[in-house]
Specification:
This protein is mainly alpha-helical and 190 residues long. 76% of the residues lie in helices and 0% in strands. It is built from 10 helices and no strands.
């Protein structure tokens, strides 16, 4: 049910998805969907969380590799960075937009967002402790990095061609280097 709901969100957008759309996609009754999720809002929040958890699992896998903190962070930022009309970014942007009006979805998106930042901050702190780089505020660095990448994603997803991919990647690398007290060249050497 959650995968079918995610598909409907991607196809129609959060605001336009109806319980009937999800039920029809699954070949079941509206009542069955409502039996499992007592409201459209709860269904959408659960579907969004389902999709975002896959991304969090991938992030944790990247950050959990047995290599330097710098390499792990660079891999994570490169993966997280927007690359254009990606389905994953459209889903996040839809979720953020709907969460302005839906408290259930807001709680889910806020929790997931905090988990992203905490995972990045943890690796920044590990790199500092290992002497790889210097960052006096790992959580602040994670917030600034994700804010930049989220903003670029909105620009690149909503306005095709607004920011070329190569430029977005350069900006992400520059921001990562700045947050870690490194030179841009230090990222390439990692």
């Amino acid at each position: 049910m959650l995968a079918a709901t995610v598909e409907q969100i991607e196809r129609r957008g959060v605001a336009a998805v109806r319980i009937a759309d999800v039920a029809a996609a699954l070949g079941v009754s509206n009542a069955l969907v409502l039996y499992h999720f007592s409201s459209k809002e709860k269904l959408l929040a659960a579907a969004f969380e389902h999709a975002a958890r896959r991304d969090l699992t991938r992030l944790r896998k990247l950050l959990g590799r047995r290599t330097s903190a710098l390499r792990r962070l660079r891999a994570a930022v490169r993966w997280y960075a927007p690359t254009g009309q990606a389905k994953g970014w459209r889903l996040w942007i839809e979720g953020w937009s709907a969460s302005l009006r839906e408290p259930t979805l807001r709680a889910v998106t806020q929790d997931l967002d905090q988990q992203w930042k905490a995972a990045l901050a943890e690796v920044v702190a590990e790199g500092c402790a290992a002497g790889e780089f210097h960052c006096p505020d790992p959580m602040g660095a994670a917030l600034r990095l994700t804010a930049l990448l989220d903003g670029l994603a909105v620009q690149m997803t909503a306005y095709e061609g607004a920011v070329p991919r190569a430029r977005a990647r350069d900006w992400a690398d520059e921001a990562l280097a700045r947050e870690l007290g490194l030179r841009r060249e230090d990222l390439s050497a990692s």
